Amino acid sequence: MNVQEIMLKDFPWVYDSEPLTKILGIFSDRKADVVVVENKANGRLVGVVTKRAMLKPNLNPSKVSARTLAVRTPRLRPSDSLHTAAKHMLERNLKALPVTEAGKPSGLVTAADVILNSRELLRKISVSKVMTREVITVDAEDTIGRAISVMRDEGVSRLPVLEGDTLAGIVTVTDIVERVVKPRLKSSWGDVVGEKVRTLSNPVKSIMTRNVMTVQASENIVDAVAKMRQHGFSCLVVTERHRVVGIFTLMDALEPVVAQLRETERNIVVEVSYKMERVAVEDKERVMEVADRFVKRFRKTLGNGVLSLYFKEHREKHGDMRLVHCRARLNSDRFQFVGVGEAWRADLAARTALKVIERQLLVRKELAARYPYGSEFLESLPTSY
């Protein structure tokens, strides 16, 4: 099955010059996960805006255009497989992706549709096999401002809310948009109509959803996703005796679909870890773009394996920025290389580290082509410089 068979032809979109207020309305009316942004001049795809974008500090939706918050997406064609769509969604942490023809958006494919159309592949996989066990939570008395900060820093769109050790509710990006952002925007227009305007100092319990949809760890993941689709949720809390033992999201359910792709084609999987105080979602996206460009450039040469990027901060500061150290390790069935880079931004540090690996790779290829006993000589070379 390919993307064209399941993509939505009627999808939410806006022109790049339109204000964020229009996107807020679409999120409310259509319950969309993303809104596609189209260039008004030529009709080409600009990117998508996600609900997480609404968490940016000091955001004025009436003055910010769609282009400003649009996230660039990988090219997805109608002929691409569901496995390819799942891979792109998982790498970019997006619940939906636009499908393009000649650079122009022609459809939208959602994570839920990919999963529900992979039933045969996923029929024996339970929630316990893929759920996230290290759950990020907030307390019912924590402020809305703290919940927003946690979502922004951790790159998540929902947080289970606890009272003691017991699940009391859940707060999502949708809750914040509907109960905090929109009422404050209406208030600035003088149109409150009796609606309560909450500040960021209000407790999370004032906006959380109390009737939390839960799932058992033993339940099949396709059935769990069908339950999400039926009730309009993007995640389910996994509980045991009213205690949170995990959280199950659409991204978790995509993992087995992507795993099958890794088994059937030559592929380099990108793994990124951060030992840093705070990493913005935009910085993570730039890092993935750098890694994707490297992998695509050398895909035919690298074989199967893993490209790991590890980031940490030094004490050196330049204004508010700290010097970032990146250690890149390529471990495939053909090569093992290590490269190190430092810069004031994570993506620039990654680019420097990958340049080191690129030089090592080109040296090996040149030696292998030049010398008749290249393979024996290469085996004696060190795997890192």
Automatic annotation (TrEMBL):
Residues 7-64, 66-125, 131-187, 208-264 form the CBS domain. Gene3D superfamilies: CBS-domain (3.10.580.10). The keyword Magnesium does not apply. SUPFAM superfamilies: CBS-domain pair. It holds the Pfam family CBS. PROSITE patterns: CBS. Keywords: CBS domain. It comes from the Archaea. PANTHER family: CBS DOMAIN-CONTAINING PROTEIN (PTHR43080:SF2), CBS DOMAIN-CONTAINING PROTEIN CBSX3, MITOCHONDRIAL (PTHR43080). This is CBS domain-containing protein.
